[in-house]
## 1
Amino acid sequence: MKELVKYSRLLHKKGLISATDGNLSGRLPSGGFVVTPSGIPKREITEKMLVKMDRAGKAVSGKASSEWQLHKAIYASRKDVGAVVHAHPPYAVALSLLGRSLEDCPLSEVRISLGAVKLVPYEEPGSAALAENAARALGKEGKAVILANHGAVAVGRDIRSAYYRMEALEHAAKIYYHALTLGRPKPFSAAVRKRLDEIAKIYNSGRSLKKR
């Protein structure tokens, strides 16, 4: 729980959220999860304010974030996910307003560390439809998605990895945004995308990369 508080404050410090924006959660051994509360600025959250949810999505105590369904849907579809971070990163959201994501972003580190970051069509914040669409877009191996006209979601085995994926997503979005203002970024060829995906599998498995 200390880690949730730590990264909640870091999200604010890094400008990935403002005021009461965003929410974070961590899976519990019981099958439920602990999530940040509703209406409290992330820089002011304490451990006592965190809300425990049972596996059915019912708050054991306190008032959970209005986006709790988003977290529940992801945990239900991904047994490998131990934490979820939902933020409103400015550059990633700006790209979504233009109907863009990082799915075809020609940055090698993005393809390797985050994979193809999809754009989830707009649905009302906090709705079951948004939760289901985000979980579906993440699929069985996705690490992050951008929510159109809203924000972004990153997942990981723990809150630390989920947070840093969100940070990496926004850094990439910033680079892509600036590239788009300068012209038309040259996309990767199909062969390069395939090779980067191969490298990603090795990178994420922890094995050593063999040169071709």
## 2
Amino acid sequence: MEHTNVLFSIGPLQVTSTVVSMWALILILTVVSFLATRRLKDVPGPLQNLAEMAVEKLQSFFADSLGQAHMRKYFPIFATFFIFIVVSNYSGLIPGMGHIKGMALPTASLSVTAGLGVIAFFTTHVIGIRERGLKKYAASFTKPLILVVLMLPLNLLEQFIRPMSLALRLYGNMYGEEMVTEKLYEIFPIGVPLIMNVLSLLFCMLQAMVFTMLLSIYVSEAAEEEE
């Protein structure tokens, strides 16, 4: 069960550790992005060089599922998803982060991953309508026409299940990993924590890749013109 970890209240509004940690990460990412792109040089410094390498890797990653044209057009959206998720995941490695420790991991909170799922839902359909037009995009849910009575509700239901599965998968994996790690820390305080931290480096990256890869596939299907 998800912990609320309420830190303080502003009138009737309760501010949880999830909200604080999420906005702290957003602030840090904003500052780092500003510093990395403030004065671009032909011979980049360490921060600019790191940013350029990250952009190149992400462009190559999304080009495989979106295609070059759609990747260039919508890259900022998918890069934002990926960077926020992966940084949120890795923040769990910071001492003091975690539901049990006090400062909640953003992506281990269902409210945060549900919000990402809602944004993913609108991203998919807004891009689909923009690329194909409202009429053609709406008509794609009735294919094949011979089975329209059966396929229309199934196709519509699928569009709501997709973002729900993205949100629940990310939440379940990150929350479960956090709880398992905490329990192992209690049982095996020496050795195992180091192994779990090393595995978390791969696990956190993998979860960000899965979320954004699936979203890019959904968007590619929505934007693709039918022959």
## 3
Amino acid sequence: MKYELVVVGALETNCYLVYCEETRACAVIDPGAEHEKIISAIADLELRPAVVLNTHGHVDHIGANSDIIRKYSVPLAMHAADTGMLQVSDYIELSLLLGAHNSPPPDRLLAEGDEVAFGQTSLRVIHMPGHTPGSIGFVHGGVLFSGDTLFCGGVGRTDLPGGSWKDLEKSIRERILTLPEETVVLPGHGPWTTVEQERSSNPFLT
């Protein structure tokens, strides 16, 4: 598995193109905005999109779903608990800022332990409620795509509808910090980190 980071939109969302080096099949994680930029990166790497994955339903992570799905005729997968968040008109000012469009409904509902396969690789689903009820991460080979659950030196907001600090802290401590300490954490915003670094120095967890 390899991946390419594409930072998109005014909120600088990390969109990841995760791909099988042998087949060039890829998963597009969190296409939140600037679909042209994402499409350009896909073309430059000669990738073949197979699925769009959302770590959660906030508009800055789903805003370009429809553009990518329409361009490549690929399915959308996310957790059932966040499917009610796909209408960007609920966040009208932010959606206008991001140029976001309503997302089609998911073709597949993901749950804890599911595997999403593309090419000769796959991602394992971890359910991590707290930032939103349906927040999920994707794990493969010592890498975690953590969405907005855990950041480098920070954690996801819990003051938005559906957020819960109790659930977020439990998710991080039981679902992320129990991973091998060398696990690379690739968050939904900002720089990458490791489980070891966040376990030892994240001010929200000490």
